[in-house]
């Protein structure tokens, strides 16, 4: 990651995500806490997760996105799009779930994670 204010190298970012994906490629579903993983594997996973997180934080900073606010907004949008009453315990696609009501929301630019000058 550079300090020049330029966007991080996209192929490098993709490579880091690829390295993270490789860890899980042949594992199938993994249980919470990774009880069957060796400590060395968990440490490696932590390093790869950290690499991806560092790139995301740097990219959001360069782009002027308040990542914390963007995440909170995304959680709110997901709660509307995937209501617990319909989705809890289901892995079905949203299009396969029956929805009785539709909810819409509006947000201002300061709520959507974009940093405005003067805020």
Q: Give the strand tally.
A: 0
Count of the separate structural domains: 2
The CATH homologous superfamily name of the largest domain equals: MazG-like
The proportion of residues in beta strands is under 5%
Task: Characterize the biggest β-sheet.
Answer: none
What is the CATH domain class of the largest domain?
A: Mainly Alpha
Radius of gyration: 19 Å
> Strand pairing plus helix content: what structural class?
mainly alpha
Oligomer class = single chain
Globally, the shape reads flat
Distance between the termini: 27 Å
| CATH architecture annotation of the largest domain | Orthogonal Bundle
Strand/helix succession: HHHH
> Helical residue percent?
40-55%
Determine the CATH topology of the largest domain.
Answer: Helix Hairpins
Low-confidence stretches: 100-109
Number of helical segments with 4 or more residues:
4
- Determine the mean pLDDT: 79
Structure, described:
By secondary structure, the protein is mostly helical. The protein folds into two domains: 1-63, MazG-like (Helix Hairpins); 65-119, no CATH class. Helices cover 50% and strands 0% of the residues. The chain has four helices and no strands. The longest helix has 25 residues, at 39-63. The radius of gyration is 19 Å and the shape is flat. The chain starts with 9 loop residues before the first helix and ends in a 32-residue tail after the last helix. This is dCTP pyrophosphatase 1.
């Amino acid at each position: 990651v550079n300090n020049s204010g330029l966007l991080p190298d996209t192929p490098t970012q993709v490579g880091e995500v690829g390295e993270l994906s490789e860890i899980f490629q042949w594992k199938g579903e993994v249980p919470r806490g990774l009880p069957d993983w060796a400590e060395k594997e968990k440490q490696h996973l932590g390093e790869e997760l950290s690499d991806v997180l560092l790139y995301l934080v740097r990219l959001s900073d360069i782009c002027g996105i308040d990542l914390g606010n963007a995440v909170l907004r995304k959680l709110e949008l997901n709660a509307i799009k995937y209501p617990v009453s319909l989705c809890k315990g289901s892995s079905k696609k949203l299009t396969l779930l029956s929805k009785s009501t539709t909810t819409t929301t509006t947000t201002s630019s300061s709520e959507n994670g974009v940093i405005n000058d003067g805020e």
